[in-house]
Amino acid sequence: MNKNKTLVIIGAGGHGLVVADCALSLGYYNNIIFLDDCLDKLNANSHWQVSGPTANWVNYRENADFIVAIGSNTIRAKLIAQLVAKQCHLATLIHPTAFVSQHSSISYGVVIFANAVVNIGARIDEGCIINTAATIDHDCHIQAYCHISPGVNIAGGVKVGKLSWLGIGSAVVEYITIAPNTQSGAGAVITKSTQSNQLYMGVPALPVRSLI
Ligand SMILES: CC(C)(COP(=O)(O)OP(=O)(O)OC[C@H]1O[C@@H](n2cnc3c(N)ncnc32)[C@H](O)[C@@H]1OP(=O)(O)O)[C@@H](O)C(=O)NCCC(=O)NCCS
Predict the structure, then answer these.
(1) Whose CA is nearest to atom 20 of ligand 1?
(2) CATH: 2.60.34.10, 3.65.10.10, 3.90.660.20, 2.160.10.10. Which one for 94-202?
(3) Nearest C-alpha to atom 25 of ligand 1 is from which residue?
């Protein structure tokens, strides 16, 4: 295994720090470069220096892996599409304490954090965040650019539409379909398939407002 690789992390906020920690725990990146458009603020608070604005990614495209560490699903999607169009290599980062079934499939640009579980038959499409201690059970399909927040539990056979954000501690019952761009509030329990572009809250979760 090549242990002399550079990882360029785009986005140096709190999520970016967790991404960097995850990458270092894997032992094959010896150089972490942060790019972010808010240089001054982030350099004062971060464990790592921010090397430059996002546009500086072009300086690293030949030799580095890239990961986009921006919580906004739409911004992350846009940046990943730009990097892929320029033939940059998008990393997939899986923390060593996560369990990811060898019979699952994980696409590029995905991060899976500590103590997460991805069970047999699950499919995680590009650019998803599977956050700390989230569980994705058998045969789920998490479409591109979703954020599955810490402590979310998704039962078997659920499809989560692209750009959805399930809030911290949400639970989803088996074999339902979460429509694209669904958001759930912290602790929501989703018991029925959802309509797209809606925020759901509560137990059982109900739509409370449109996101567009
Ligand atoms: C649901 C959510 C998006 C609503 O945010 P918001 O529109 O700014 O709502 P507010 O904070 O103004 O709260 C509005 C009301 O909803 C209530 N509320 C907020 N979140 C709630 C939730 N998850 N479940 C039930 N009620 C909630 C508030 O207590 C408040 O009630 P009140 O009017 O009686 O005082 C947000 O509270 C939330 O749960 N975000 C998820 C955060 C998360 O998962 N972060 C993980 C990052 S890794």
Answers:
(1) 185
(2) 2.160.10.10
(3) 202
For residue 193, the CA-to-ligand 1 centroid distance in Å is: 21
DSSP state letter for 12 = -
Contact 189, 205 (CB under 8 A): yes
For residue range 142-173, list pLDDT tens digits in order.
999 999 999 999 999 999 999 999 999 999 99
Write the DSSP assignment of 15-46 as a string of letters: HHHHHHHHHHHHT-EEEEEEE-S-HHHHHHH-
210, 198 in Cβ contact below 8 A?
Answer: yes
Q: Is the pTM of this model over 0.85?
A: yes
Q: Whose CA is nearest to atom 46 of ligand 1?
A: 168
- pLDDT tens by residue, 13-57: 999 999 999 999 999 998 999 999 987 666 666 688 899 999 999
